[in-house]
Amino acid sequence: MMTGPFASAEEFGELTGLVTDRSRVQRWLGAASDLIRGYTGQTLSKVVGEVEVLEKIESDVLLLSERPVTAISTVVVNGTTLGPTEYAFTSWGKLTRVSGATWSLGATVTYTHGYVETDWEWGVLRGVCMDVAARGISLNERSASEALGSTLMESAGFSPEVFLTEGEKARLALFGPVMVG
């Protein structure tokens, strides 16, 4: 599933004061966002109508892959659609049957998940995204001036460096995988 960056080139420019090629900055922000999504194992952006087929399990809890879960539109078990009073869910993606029955037949769930730009969590994601992109841009330009004069590293065929610091990983811990115990 493809989603856009957590920040725009305009926001980046406002925060850093750097005036640079907007399309280049947008690519860096995209790379930073992809890195964040890969690290957390989550899409994080709001997605409406995600369909997930969950395997049969002899448990009273199913765990949806994406978080936060903000709404469930349908739960289908063996061809039968459950009514909204027949199941409960948490934002962490735990899906249970109100009757206490197990999910021995599995389920197909259509749901909405992720954050929107007005959520405080989006602000955390935006901040990490811009920090990663800014570091990548400055390392790229600094390395370029040291090694290649005024030629940008990516223009010379070298891969730009995009990585998360330990502090950024700590800020992203809120969004990482959840273990069900």
How many structural domains does the protein architecture include?
2
Radius of gyration: 21 Å
Helix tally equals: 4
- Strand runs, count: 7
Largest sheet properties: 4 strands, antiparallel
How is the largest sheet built, in terms of strand order?
A: 1-7-3-4
Structural class: alpha+beta
- What is the mean predicted local confidence, pLDDT? 87
Beta-strand residue percentage: 15-25%
| CA distance, first residue to last residue | 28 Å
Order of helices and strands: HHEEEEEEEHH
- Approximate helicity band: 25-40%
- Low-confidence stretches are 142-149
Shape: elongated
Q: What does this entry look like structurally?
A:
This protein has two domains: 9-43 and 117-175, no CATH class; 47-113, no CATH class. By secondary structure, the protein is an alpha+beta fold. 35% of the residues lie in helices and 20% in strands. The chain contains four helices and seven strands. A hairpin with a 2-residue loop joins strand 3 and strand 4 (80-81). Helix 2 (22-40) crosses helix 3 (120-148). It has helices spanning 9-16, 22-40, 120-148, 166-172, and strands at residues 47-54, 61-63, 69-77, 80-81, 87-89, 94-97, 107-113. It starts with 8 loop residues before the first helix and ends in a 9-residue tail after the last helix.
